[in-house]
Specification:
With 69 residues, this protein is mostly helical. It has one domain (2-68). It has 2 helices and no strands.
């Protein structure tokens, strides 16, 4: 799961580099803004994945309790 999130984050990073560089920005500004977007996107995807996994685990534990009680 972590590799998928990192790969999606890197894809967003490189796409943002392309978009910002086509706007004629300075190289430093492009890299800083792209890194910020990469960090935020990766953090949000990690939180989303963790909440999704937690919801699946909670549902499976409840089904297991109902099945064996």
């Amino acid at each position: 799961m972590n590799k998928i999130i990192l790969n999606v984050g890197l894809l967003i990073f490189f796409i943002s580099i392309i978009i910002f560089s086509q706007q004629g920005m300075l190289v430093e500004d492009v890299l800083i803004k792209s890194f910020v977007i990469f960090f935020v996107a990766t953090l949000m995807l990690t939180i989303l994945a963790l909440s999704f996994i937690r919801a699946i685990n909670k549902t499976s534990i409840e089904k297991h309790k109902n099945y064996y009680s």
